[in-house]
Every structure is written in structure tokens, then in C-alpha cells.
Amino acid sequence: MDMTFQEGLALVAIGGVAGFINVLSAGGSMLTLPLLMFLGLPPQVANGTNRVSIVLQSVAAVGSFRREGASHVGLSLRLSVPAVAGSVFGAWLAMQVSDTLFEAILISAMAVASVAMLLPQPRVDTRPLSSQDLSPALYLAMFGIGVYGGFLQVGVGILFMAVLYRMLRIDLAQVNVFKVFIILVYMLPALGLFVYHGHVRWGYGLLLAVGSMAGAWLAVKVNMGPRGAAWIKWLTVAVIVTIILRLLLG
């Protein structure tokens, strides 16, 4: 499939916006996955191709967080184990459904995630974490998030926010550090499964990744306050509404 210059530019630009949003908030895949479908990729191929950008975006974010002195490698690895198991199952499941069902699930997931992004977050306390804080219920939640992320990925950051905010009651800065690391670890086997089944278009994925890595790097550098987070969420929801209408109207 040939790609025009304008389409390549759109992939880089939207990738940059998505990478920035993904690191500071959530919902970047709500922009990139429909974009890949609009450019002519079948839903399952778009789903696999989008993973290339997510992996490289996460590499950039994890590296930048470590250079900034923010890292929870040990605890993140513990939480990644059930997420990896879930993601492999979710990726396998995604390749079993029809394109029509996948599109219906995508629209539903975007609608639910849009509402979830607007819900108020609980009051949190900044405190050091240890392995004793990781309960069996949290590990089970990580498995569930892994299944969803392996299947679709759209809005998975919102699930991380809900789980880590509400179960660990840690602040947004800590949530983002955990989030990008766990996504990187569980996304690798999921991407491998899509590659094995021929559901990745590398040209599209790598162009998307160029933008998303730049956006992720910039997001780590930005000291995002509550007002900033709010406008990103509202901007994302506005774009999502447009995408849902576009999908519904064909």
C-alpha cells in the first residue's frame, strides 16, 4: 500500500500529539488507531501497527524518566508479570474477532474511556511504596489491564490511573512512571504476536513512532499541573467525539 507525503506527515504529527497525551494522561491510541484505519489499514492490521509506536514511545518515556531520576524498576517489574500474561491472551483474542466486531468494540471503548477521562480523581497522598503495598487484588487488576491492553490498548492509561490512584493512592507523577514502564514490558510480547501473524505495516508504524517518541520526550520534560492536565483531557475528548462520529457515519 503506497503512502502519500501528506499521510506520512499526518502520522508523524498525530503521533506527536498521541505520545504527549499518553505520557501525561491517557487516550493517545484513540487518535492513532482510527487514523491508521482512516488511511486504509484493516482494523486488525491497524491494531498491530499501532503497537510499534507504543513500544518505541514507551522506550523514550522510560529513558527520559530515568534520566530525570524517576524510576520504580523493581515494583514495576513485579506488576508487569501478570500484565504480560494478560496481554498475550488479549492479543490472541483480538485476532479471533471479525473486523465488524472489532470496530464496534473500538467505538464502545472510546465512548466509555471518554466519560472516564472526565470523572474526578480521588485525593491522593504522596508516599514511598514498597512490595508490601502490592496486594493480590492489584496483581489481578494488572492481569485484567494486560488483557485489555493486548486486545485493544485504546484508553488503557485510564485503567492504570483508576487502579493505581484508587488502589495505591499515589500521585499522578508516580502513576505515569509505573504506567509507561509496565506498558513497555507487556507490549513487547503482544507486538511479537501481531508481527508473527503479519498484522504490522512497519512503514506506518515507524512514522507514527517518530512523532510519538518526540511527544513522549517532551511530555516528560513538561511539569504538568492540574489545569494543564484538565485541558489535555478536554482536548482529547473533543477529538474522540469527532472520531466516533466519523466511524459511525462511515
Automatic annotation (TrEMBL):
| Primary location recorded for the protein, binned into one broad class | membrane
What keywords sit in the KW lines?
Cell membrane, Membrane, Transmembrane, Transmembrane helix, Transport
Give the matching InterPro entries.
TM_pro_TauE-like, TSUP
The protein depicted here goes by the name Probable membrane transporter protein
**Similarity remark:** Belongs to the 4-toluene sulfonate uptake permease (TSUP) (TC 2.A.102) family.
- Indicate yes or no for the key word Transmembrane helix: yes
Q: Which Pfam families match?
A: TauE
Residues passing through the membrane, by range: 9-33, 75-94, 101-119, 139-165, 177-196, 202-220, 232-249
Q: Where in the cell is it found?
A: Cell membrane
Q: How does it sit in the membrane?
A: Multi-pass membrane protein
Ribosomal protein in keyword set: no
